[in-house]
UniProtKB/TrEMBL annotation, chain A:
Record's keyword annotation contains Metal-binding: yes
Reaction it catalyzes: 4 Fe(II)-[cytochrome c] + O2 + 8 H(+)(in) = 4 Fe(III)-[cytochrome c] + 2 H2O + 4 H(+)(out)
Keyword Transmembrane helix listed: yes
EC number: 7.1.1.9
InterPro entries, alphabetized: Cyt_c_oxase-like_su1_dom, Cyt_c_oxase-like_su1_sf, Cyt_C_Oxase_1, Cyt_c_Oxase_su1_BS, Cyt_c_oxidase_su1_bac
Organism of derivation: Geobacillus thermodenitrificans (strain NG80-2)
Pfam families noted in UniProt: COX1
Gene Ontology CC annotation, any one: plasma membrane
Lineage of the organism: Bacteria, Bacillati, Bacillota, Bacilli, Bacillales
Cofactors demanded by this protein: Cu(2+); heme
Principal location: membrane
Protein's name according to its UniProt entry: Cytochrome c oxidase subunit 1
Automatic annotation (TrEMBL), chain B:
NCBIfam families (alphabetical): CoxD_Bacillus
Keywords: Cell membrane, Membrane, Transmembrane, Transmembrane helix
Transmembrane regions: 29-48, 54-76, 88-109
Keyword Cell membrane: yes
Location within or outside the cell: Cell membrane
Any Gene Ontology CC annotation: plasma membrane
Coiled-coil region list: none
Database matches in InterPro entries: Cyt_c_oxidase_su4_bacillaceae (IPR014257), Cyt_c_oxidase_su4_prok (IPR005171)
Name of the protein in its database record: Cytochrome caa3-type oxidase IV
Organism: Geobacillus thermodenitrificans (strain NG80-2)
Keyword hit for Transmembrane helix: yes
Membrane topology, from the record: Multi-pass membrane protein
Domain of life, per lineage: Bacteria
Length: 622, 110
């Protein structure tokens, strides 16, 4: 099989992506599908804000509002933020540790396709009676009561499928980072983004099983006559809330730790200075992850757990502010005395600090259990978590997009357009969410589809809606930037000129095998070290030789498609005759392709030394 | 760390490997016999009417714990070098689960 790039037709490119097991292409897939779901979730957000732009509006009422609201939250968390985080992990982590791919390339593809089909399944609900409408938290008492259509079943089955993909992805990154680091890349020489990926993957490993258990219980209750959450039959509806938040709080760290990682890279690169307090950053990341498992019940202060439980979870929650504070100061000290370049990614990084700190401060306010009785289920909570999720995670994803775009696609994004995107988004974000703190304190409840005139809520809501349109405009500018980048400036290997980590040492985009020779890592920020010694390239750790590569495979797609089919079958198995057979057919497809995977020997192939040399020569001239 | 290098060392010391394997086998057999013994003791403890439940239940739980340790350390090779990460993640998972159970059984339910 030849790997020399040549112009391919659309069909060939499509087939390439459908069967790829290359982490760089899987990163593209995550970025594109996560991006599309992000646009979808954004559109839903706009609809919500339009409905709330004026009192007694009737743009989206009642049940439909609940569906749009639920799908906005679910899409943004599970189908936009998580896959976008995975896009950067896939694109960057193997390069940062000096590896040729992830540990299990086939599983990597499987993880993506499971996420993809789970997401598509969830969104099919729009066309099949109605979307889930019990909130992204899908509390059991609401979920079991949602009987008008199959919405919530799409939620339970879709999230099980995509959750499986996430779990697979997490395990894959754990094994990759433990086993595939280049010679000399010790744990305490790993870039912060790789550390964040490692800790995040551990969180995924421990946090997703409780969600899966909860989803299976809910599925049983709704589709198979179970009574786990039905108090009338001896069940307990509160168990869902615990299971959900045992997953849910670590989930917020699954999102925000990679965001911290992205910003750590950007601060160091554009301050042209080593990350301040590297080891304390690592320590803080691990500590946040650990504490993240001990605080889930802060989402349930008003459930009636009693004063002792509330007090313990309240204090535990507040302690997380300490390691987070350590990180904030480290970023500030990284900039201190650095020679700062205000590129687009750096704009996001600098704006992230005050924005995220505001979210953290309201977090500590919410963590005071007694005060939470007042804030709970009000717009104050909405403001809080958007400050952490948008001000932290989305800023990081946008920053990462600008920062790593040249590495992923080989073209620079336009800096002027990038800065326009930033300012529109930054202004829009604060316009939308800052005022919501006060709307909440004035008593505007969360998840309610309208409000009355004459209660002082009009101006605030109107401002908030205007802000949302600013963010929409920012997104449009970003899309334009992406489209014109196809003809944009070609990116060199060290695209920003200040790269510190290994990914900037190889061509943009990297060749299939990443490193012709695995590099020898001599310290933190290996590329920077070499550049400081006047060298242009890394010291190789091995002689040039044939490179072993995994074969592409269509099986991950089919396996995931099988579960997609099965999910339809089981959703409709109660009222139709075809449901059960279709469900079984789907499972047969999945298990059949798993069987094929086990019996067919696949030893991969080699790229020969001569071919590598030829490719390297071409890459160097590009 | 080096398993993806394209230059590998193919030489292995066969005699050493064989000796090591024999020793390994002996440990496995001993552990296996012990595990069967523990299982028999557990059955006996439950079957023997004179013992009170207050003794039997903690006792068989203890035996179960020992069995898990045997399983992990002898059959799944965690006693070997290079298993620090599996150990870390297993104990991490156990810790998280214990906190959960502890929280549920003390402060959450009542
Ligand atoms: C860093 C990333 C964070 C994210 C992504 C995040 C996200 C969220 C979300 C989505 C909710 C709403 C839950 C619901 O549906 O009711 C929430 C609520 C809450 N958050 Fe955060 N959060 C983060 C950080 C923090 C921090 C640092 C604290 C405290 C130190 C905190 C404390 C709380 C509390 C106490 C609530 C419950 C409020 C209530 O139910 O009334 N969060 N957060
Ligand atoms: Cu939480």
């Amino acid at each position: 099989m030849s790997t020399i790039a040549r112009k391919k037709g659309v069909g060939a490119v499509l087939w390439d992506y459908l069967t790829t097991v290359d982490h760089k292409k899987i990163a593209h897939l995550y970025l594109i599908s996560g991006g599309i779901f992000f646009l979808l979730g954004g559109l839903e957000a706009l609809f919500i804000r339009i409905q709330l732009a004026k009192p007694n509006n009737d743009f989206l009422v009642g049940g439909l509002y609940n569906e749009v609201l639920t799908m906005h939250g679910t899409t943004m968390i599970f189908l936009a933020a998580m896959p976008l985080v995975f896009a950067f992990m896939n694109a960057v982590v193997p390069l940062q540790i000096g590896a040729r791919d992830v540990a299990f390339p086939f599983l990597n593809a499987l993880g993506f396709w499971l996420f993809f089909f789970g997401g598509v399944f969830l969104n099919c609900s729009w066309f099949l009676g109605g979307a889930p409408d019990a909130g992204w938290t899908s509390y059991a008492s609401l979920a079991l009561d949602s009987k008008a259509h199959h919405g919530v079943d799409f939620y339970t089955l879709g999230l099980q499928i995509s959750g499986l993909g996430t779990l697979i992805g997490g395990i894959n990154f754990l094994v990759t980072i433990i086993n595939m680091r280049a010679p000399g890349m010790t744990f305490m020489r790993m870039p912060m983004f790789t550390w964040a990926t490692f800790v995040t993957s551990a969180l995924i490993l421990f946090a997703f099983p409780p969600l899966t258990v909860g989803l299976i219980f809910l599925m049983m209750d709704r589709l198979f006559g179970g009574n786990f959450f039905n108090p009338a039959a001896g069940g307990n509806t509160i168990i869902w809330e615990h299971l959900f938040w045992v997953f849910g709080h670590p989930e917020v760290y699954i999102l925000v730790l990679p965001a911290f990682g992205i910003f750590s890279e950007i601060f160091a690169t554009f301050s042209r200075k080593r990350l301040f307090g590297y080891s304390s950053m690592v320590f803080a990341t691990v500590l946040i992850a650990f504490l993240g498992f001990m605080v889930w019940a802060h989402h349930m202060f008003t459930v009636g757990m009693g004063p002792i439980a509330n007090a313990i979870f309240s204090v535990a929650t507040m302690t997380i502010a300490v390691p987070t504070g350590i990180k904030i100061f480290n970023w500030l000290f990284t900039m201190w005395g650095g020679s700062i370049k205000f590129t687009t990614p750096m704009h996001y990084a600098v704006a992230f600090i005050p924005s995220f700190v505001m979210g953290g401060v309201t977090g500590v306010m919410l963590a005071a259990a007694a005060a939470d009785y007042q804030y709970h289920d009000s717009y104050f909570v909405v403001a809080h978590f958007h400050y952490v999720i948008v001000g932290g995670v989305v800023f990081a994803l946008l920053a990462g997009t600008h920062y790593w775009w040249p590495k992923m696609f080989g073209r620079m994004l336009n800096e002027t357009l990038g800065k326009i995107t930033f300012w529109l988004f930054f202004i829009g974000f604060h316009l939308t969410f800052f005022i919501q703190h006060f709307l909440g304190l004035m008593g505007m409840p969360r998840r309610v589809f309208t409000f009355l005139p004459g209660q002082g809520l009009e101006t605030g809501n109107f401002i908030s809606t205007v802000g949302a349109f600013f963010m929409a405009a920012a997104t449009v500018v970003l899309l334009i930037n992406i489209v014109i980048s196809v003809k944009g400036e070609k990116a060199p290997a060290d695209a920003w000129g200040d790269g510190r980590t290994l990914e900037w040492a190889i061509a943009s985009p990297p060749p299939v095998y990443n490193f012709a020779q695995l590099p020898l890592v001599r310290g933190l920020d290996p590329l920077w070290l070499e550049k400081m010694e006047g060298k242009k390239e890394l010291t190789p750790a091995e002689p040039l030789g044939d490179i072993h590569m995994p074969n592409s495979s269509f099986l991950p797609f089919i396996m995931s498609f099988g579960l997609f089919v099965a999910a339809f079958g089981f959703t409709y198995h109660q009222e139709t005759a075809w449901g059960l057979p279709v469900g079984i057919l789907g499972l047969l497809i999945t298990f059949g392709s798993m069987f094929l995977r086990s019996v067919i020997d696949d030893h991969g192939f080699h790229i020969h030394k001569e071919e590598v040399l030829e490719l390297e020569k071409k890459g160097a001239n590009a | 760390m080096t398993n993806q290098m394209n230059s590998g060392n193919e030489r292995v010391d066969l005699a050493y490997r064989r000796r090591k394997n024999a020793e390994e086998m002996r440990h496995q057999v001993i552990a296996f016999v012990l595990m069967i013994l523990l299982t028999l003791i557990a059955f006996a403890a439950v079957g023997y009417e004179e013992f009170s439940h207050w003794f039997v239940i903690p006792f068989i739980l203890l035996l179960a714990g020992v069995q898990v340790a045997f399983q992990l350390y002898y059959f799944m090779h965690m006693s070997h070098k290079g298993h620090e990460f599996p150990a870390l993640f297993i104990y991490g998972g156990v810790l998280v689960m214990l906190v959960l159970v502890w929280a549920f059984s003390t402060i959450v339910w009542w």
